[in-house]
Amino acid sequence: MDYLENGESVLLCAWHQQFFSAIRHFQNYKVFNPSIMISQSSDGEIVAGMAKHAGWNPVRGSSSRGGREALKKMIVNLKESKLAAHIVDGPRGPSGKVKAGVIRLAHATDAVIVPVYAFAENGWYFNSWDKFLLPKPFSKVLIRFGKMIKFDRVKDIEIFEEQRKRLEEIMLPALKV
Prior knowledge:
The protein has helices spanning 2-5, 16-22, 42-53, 67-81, 101-109, 157-171, and strands at 10-14, 35-38, 57-60, 83-87, 112-120, 123-125, 133-135, 141-145. By secondary structure, it is an alpha/beta fold. The chain has one domain (2-174): Glycerol-3-phosphate (1)-acyltransferase (3-Layer(aba) Sandwich). It starts with a helix and ends in a 6-residue tail after the last helix.
């Protein structure tokens, strides 16, 4: 919070499997008017409504549809509000594979990346591409924030790819496979 209050940009990043479990906690950040990219699918419509109810600005688009425009909007919003969230392997995976958009967004806004992990004391894991986690009623949910990661803006595609892989390596141990 101190980092945000000092005017620096923060990009919270989560696995698709875990983001829903943390959505209630993110009401605490609505004062920052944050944004989150959510797919244009019908499932995304439900999640976008929940995010909006929690005080977040859903930006509709993903790597599979409307991504370029959504990324541009996310850049504008993050530069303005200083806080956003990104689902690093969504909307269709593959699970555990960080997509390039998160690195592009961090570069374009000079934001630090903060991995966010959610774990449920008791939960259901769906038989889906990501083993989506839904906490059972009254289950305790633990949300853990990783250390801030700052990647220098680069033009070299090999270094860019190294940064993407590094984020993947940092976040992968928290993913249930």
